[in-house]
Amino acid sequence: MKITWLLVVAVIVIFASIIVVLVYQSSFLIPPKPSVEGKDLFGIDEIYPTKEGGREWYVDMENLFSDDLFSSSFDRNITKQQDGSWHIAESAVRLNVGTPPNAEVWKNVEITGYAKVLGSTLSTSSTNSEMADDNGSGGDNEERDFTSDLDWRARGGRHNNEHPCDGTAYIGTIDINGYVRWKKEIWHTGGYTDARAVDKATDSLVGRWIGWKVVIYSINNNTAVKLESYLDDKNNNKWIKVTDLVDDGRWYANSSDKEFYSAGCGRPKDYIITNGGPIVTFRSDNMIWDFKNLSVREINPA
User: Fold this and answer.
1) Are 51 and 12 contained in the same domain?
2) Could you tell me the pTM of the whole model?
3) What is the domain extent for residue 13?
4) How far is CA 281 from CA 96, 141, 142, 286, in A?
């Protein structure tokens, strides 16, 4: 009888151990929620809280493209580094975060990423075919910038000549020398504006990690758009606002009237991009860099 009870106790202990192990393992299958209010899943400070019921996207740092919503417009060689970051050295990088079918598109957003710039490619030899939209979800066959910069952009869709009116965007940029600016694209590619809020926010980016945040949200009953950008200059999660701009009109495309209206998008030349868009893009031109902890969140700026 004593042996029988010992067997029963042993079986119970074994089953209990199995349940504990399964629960423990399953905790790693579901991304943890932030344990501290005001921080995202990577532990990075949020400028604005996530909208109630809003969508959040975080890059999978173990397997970049395991998420079907994340894609590269071009077939790029992206390699993982010993510190867990990812390395890319291309003259044109377009990393796109899409929208699930039947879901609300990205509109009021906080876009965050960390970058370590290693140098500039200064390549201007990309062919037109290389710049074409090869996946139908955010490619870019626009004329290239001849500077080395990073920009996070939102409020648009595909950027190609076949769908010119989809190519809207607010574009928050920081270049290799530490200058920041905003641009607007009313259509692709004849709807670009000149830069605004241009300022030297920091020294050269080369050889060090920085964090770059771009915030876009509508104000005044969706009649104007607030644009803010923030810099974590010391890679210590201390964010400083470096631009603060409102688009309430009179920010015009710099193309001629003939070119601007040739697309037939039905927009004024100082169109305020009050629409959302299905694609958010982390972009670089002429840049060799490492990146990590990319995210996009739908925010409640109030």
Assistant:
1) no
2) 0.84
3) 1-30
4) 4, 14, 15, 16
